[in-house]
Amino acid sequence: MTEAVGEVAVTTKEGLHARPVMRFVDVASTFGSTISVCNITLGGESLDGKSAMEMMLLEATQNCVIRISAKGDDANEAVAALTSLVESGMENPASSPSGDPPTASAS
Amino acid sequence: MRLSELIHGPSVVPELAATDRNGVIRELIQSLADHGALDPDSVETATRAAIARENQGSTGFGKGVAVPHVKHDCVKTMTATIGRSSRGVDFAALDRAPVYSVVLLLSPAETPEDHLAAMEKIFRYLQRENFRRFLRQADTVEAISDLVAEADEMKE
What we know:
The complex is a heterodimer. In chain A, 26% of the residues lie in helices and 22% in strands. By secondary structure, chain A is of the alpha+beta class. Chain B has helices at residues 3-6, 21-34, 43-56, 112-126, 129-137, 141-153; strands at 60-62, 65-66, 69-71, 79-89, 99-107. In chain B, strands 1, 2, 3, 4 and 5 form a 5-stranded mixed beta sheet that branches. By secondary structure, chain B is an alpha/beta fold.
């Protein structure tokens, strides 16, 4: 059992709104490790990184720092993938099983 | 922020006439305009934008609830309403189950922080199994408004 932790700042102006959260959950769900996420800027609670309903409570606006913790055999890989996903501004469709087309309008 | 301040009470639709996703979004936005919470001239634009948003990724987060939302210039003041469908509507939800309760949120384009805070508030309530169950059963405008007000009084 491996444990890994990473911290990453949200850089996008929109913050982690619904679609990025869904993408995060999609990617998190590809790992066997348990994944928890906490908005340390807001001092928020620890949320299940694989639950869209819970992750909507993250309220990660621009410049918030979030902590991603993983426990399990692929913990290191999970934290690496998820921190780089957030760092990239969630625009990394290669990591997204849902494959939503990146679109700038509407939301 | 209290949910009862966010949800525009008079615009709540206790039994949606629409039976499909786009129809539900249109009906709720029209209801907001009919009850003075949205400029009637913005209905068409807001509806198209909300549907376009939904096409980019379902807001059916599972457990019978969906939260269609959009940030758009045509919205001057953040507003939200609730629709209920006793039949259930297909929102292409994460868990593929029908949606019985729809919370629709419209925000101005330039206040993403307020929008995220409102989404957080909405999900804070939808998280509660009791709230979801009572919402699904609330079949009048008053019952839905009362439920929202009661939920505001409850401690986390």
